[in-house]
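Why run this: before we spend reagent on co-expression, it is cheaper to look at a predicted model of the complex and decide which construct boundaries make sense. The entries below are exactly what would go into the expression plan.
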Amino acid sequence: MKELTEQYLMEAIEDSKPFASSGNVNMNIPNTDETLKDLLGVTIITMDQECYCAGDYMECVPMQSTSKIIGLMLALQDFGKDRVFQAVGMEPMGDFFNSISQLESYDTSKPFNPMINAGAIAVAALIKGQSVEKRFERYLNFLKKITSHEELWMSEEVYEAEKANGARNRSLAYFMQSTGTLVTDVEEALDLYFRMNAVMMNCEDFARVGLFLARGGRAPHTEERLIPPHHLRTVKAIMMTSGMYNSSGHYAVEAGIPCKSGVSGSIIGAIPGRMGIGVIGPAIDEKGNSTAGGALIKKLSQDLGLNMFGIENIEKER
Amino acid sequence: MKELTEQYLMEAIEDSKPFASSGNVNMNIPNTDETLKDLLGVTIITMDQECYCAGDYMECVPMQSTSKIIGLMLALQDFGKDRVFQAVGMEPMGDFFNSISQLESYDTSKPFNPMINAGAIAVAALIKGQSVEKRFERYLNFLKKITSHEELWMSEEVYEAEKANGARNRSLAYFMQSTGTLVTDVEEALDLYFRMNAVMMNCEDFARVGLFLARGGRAPHTEERLIPPHHLRTVKAIMMTSGMYNSSGHYAVEAGIPCKSGVSGSIIGAIPGRMGIGVIGPAIDEKGNSTAGGALIKKLSQDLGLNMFGIENIEKER
Amino acid sequence: MKELTEQYLMEAIEDSKPFASSGNVNMNIPNTDETLKDLLGVTIITMDQECYCAGDYMECVPMQSTSKIIGLMLALQDFGKDRVFQAVGMEPMGDFFNSISQLESYDTSKPFNPMINAGAIAVAALIKGQSVEKRFERYLNFLKKITSHEELWMSEEVYEAEKANGARNRSLAYFMQSTGTLVTDVEEALDLYFRMNAVMMNCEDFARVGLFLARGGRAPHTEERLIPPHHLRTVKAIMMTSGMYNSSGHYAVEAGIPCKSGVSGSIIGAIPGRMGIGVIGPAIDEKGNSTAGGALIKKLSQDLGLNMFGIENIEKER
Amino acid sequence: MKELTEQYLMEAIEDSKPFASSGNVNMNIPNTDETLKDLLGVTIITMDQECYCAGDYMECVPMQSTSKIIGLMLALQDFGKDRVFQAVGMEPMGDFFNSISQLESYDTSKPFNPMINAGAIAVAALIKGQSVEKRFERYLNFLKKITSHEELWMSEEVYEAEKANGARNRSLAYFMQSTGTLVTDVEEALDLYFRMNAVMMNCEDFARVGLFLARGGRAPHTEERLIPPHHLRTVKAIMMTSGMYNSSGHYAVEAGIPCKSGVSGSIIGAIPGRMGIGVIGPAIDEKGNSTAGGALIKKLSQDLGLNMFGIENIEKER
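The model came back. Tokens follow.
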């Protein structure tokens, strides 16, 4: 096993970069082009708030699907586990993140889990607030506290693009309305969902979210508990089984870390009691995961003994 | 958190027993009747070989699907990870364990993972040996070493019943033959699979399998490494995402322990670096998991701080 | 075989009425209640314009899915067969009329045929006109010519109800937008589709549509050809394979008549070169077909030798 | 419209032959190679037993799926419509002929119709007889009477090849056993099914089957009624909705003739009260239909006014 240093991180970045070539940058995101393809950045923050970063860690990308775990935390906070999982399941699904067939195939038309689009829309519909604006404000404030980054902002351009390209999500949402799964206003739920996806974050922001989960819900500096640890246990478990789209099983085996990825090439990793990881690598594979970023996560797990199913770390300690 | 004692285990059994009433005993297993419905037993063995047991821990049931993890270990040992996962995937699947549609729906007709029947048959087809008898002998010997239980035996009756009721598994296997996924003799692969399911085990045996996984592959007394730890990491990760049929997500959230269940009501739990758990509770729910046994696993996780996504244990240590 | 007389029709109505008890009235249609359950009316018009009617033939119901064949005729007229069947398939589908899975399951996300909702929406999107109002006006004028019923009107109430309950159709339409199948404005296509469904017709109107198809496209009195016969051949073939929802195969066997049904309990029958049939019986089965109306259609086919796959009529003539 | 003469048929063959190039010969059939690709033959027999033939009409190919309509006739004869359609549905299915998903997707695991493999196996299982040999003997004798071809024979080579490549059909059959749809011996049902597919026929034989259906069940020379006309009406209706694999809708529109095709490139056409058509053209498309043969059928329908949904013929007569 290797030691976590910035020197090591730089080497890990260099080793992982070549995997970018097998991916493609998601061109639906505004201001995105092929020049982003070779970017790769990482930030790791340990339990004692030590921060390590390397590569293009200063870059900003929209949250995209990484917003799904923030939405889930807020909904759990607002309504508790029972109510949230009346609206959405917690089972992994062997299909693409925007599949609609599953909504039709099963007796219950409840989305399989909160990490697929239908599930995340159903969760967004739960977040409390008197208007879409208020609800999004709560979301953004929560995120600012978690990351202790007061300047977090939503890209209007990304939000508009999400809305303009939102036909599939709209189809999922109206389907859920037709089956009674979604009972609130469909366009409002979608609007909130699109905004959530459009918040811009850098590697440290992503790592802070990971750390928040890893530490059981305490604010970075004040140590205030913002959310009870048992809710975060739920979120991490769902990240492990469903966080990496339909490569989640692959990542459970190869990295063994609760992760959540987004089609902007971002990955949040949360190793309970150890560290938070934030990765950005815009070239994604056909399932939606950053190719270089995914390679980096697997390398970090291997080199630093982060795999939760391994015993290297435990053996070392004995 | 509570302390692990036999007194505690007895209380946990009493608390979990009432859940048996919501399940049903699988009547396809010979010598099985309603009188087994209220049985519930547990054995826990810790890293330092301390053994705790309570309830009907002396009962024997056939392995059924718990055999899938043994088959997977042997195949990984025989062929390595790359070859095994050419034959079978590692993604969780949101469908019943005997689903055939998934084999048809995807470009690759590779079964989703080794925990569903199709996948386990594909894995069984890999296990080396010159005849079905020899291959099964290797399986049984491996199991005897893991459990250090020399008297382990296969029930002819259960084997015959498996074979007689094997139409669905036969359908899965011939489907895989038709797509070129299964290239060896179909009836031989099925025969071995049926035998593997028919090995009779008690709670200690199941717990020993869990401990073997938790300890990274050493034989109980000799401390000989029978299989490299990285293969067991793979097995535990797959148990977490897919081990409890299509309630695996639920168990990842509610227990957070790599588990594998069988329709005989057995459950194997493997907490890396901590302990192995064996449970028997024959009343199963419609997904195939022991109702009382599942309740017990969740209670143990909660009371003893076993949830891998929690930080209670870590916090305690700090 | 029996002779077609009003006396015979009255008896046929009486024989078929009891089947109403096994169906249910579609309560989503405004001004619809259980009192409509026992209604049953029929009008038959032969090639030489003889008109026979019996039962509640004066009742009016909304067209609902019977509008699908009118939309298809107009689109064929506007764009020709090649263009129309670029937008929609012509294969029967073994699934419910509002299924969305099929759109996702196949390489092409083209709806299976124009008789299912997704297909009919795709067809409605083709109908020419500068605005939804103009396009609907063309639809209504075409229908007035076919039926020579100048007073045909659209029920605002039914239209509003269609729109209010339109979540599933909206989901289908946005799905088609997401795959590029639907390239025009989604809400406009839906609006036109909802209006088309809301035109109120009685048994004679429905029979006139059938006759128009049976006679190869001539206006009732002027004998003007409104549409070339080969387009109507296409429509009748699709009615035979897909016109009665996912009971179309059953009706092909038991009646052998090109038919189209609607969830208002209406059925249009078109026997090439022989007659048009219009039936209203609001109690429908779970597939969407009038139970008493369907029984009547089968009885008429049997008694009058209308089954196109039979040779009674041919033998008689020899 | 054109007149039916051998001269016309020769021209029609020449016009259709080029379509062979877009198809491929099914190499699973023994003694089949690329040299067969350009073969195209046709025989038409009218109600008054006039026989017209052209092209390679003397060639012999195995029945393959055209056997499905013979099996259905025998089963209807043996058990009547009610019993047969307890075992198999009569609805067209929008999927490939060997799909297994549909058996799993629906509440009833009854195959959709007798024209898909699962349905035909379920029908074959019904055919009476004390052994597979006796049951096949009945089948062959029935076929000899229909075609008045005493020398009809089964190719052992084709039968053996069917059996050797029968994994998918075996999978379908065991699936049906697992759901209780198939209650007789699976291997026997398959054995009979494979034999039925292996009977060798030429264009005249195929045309005779078509004529038998078109004439309502009379033996060619004796005029003995072998099967009641209402059973043949059922068979022709199912041919129209499901006889051309999942291009049946296309052929209903483009030809409007009850047809059944086989992957040997054979097509049987049956126009009620008019004629039987037999076509052989071994190059098939990816759905299983002869490309040149299908083009020929559509041309014949167009030129000779055979489309049942058209009124050319009727108009001409008036």
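The beta strands of chain C are 24-25, 41-46, 51-55, 61-62, 153-154, 199-201, 259-261, 266-271, 275-280, 283-284. The mean pLDDT of chain C is 93. Bring this page to Monday's planning discussion.
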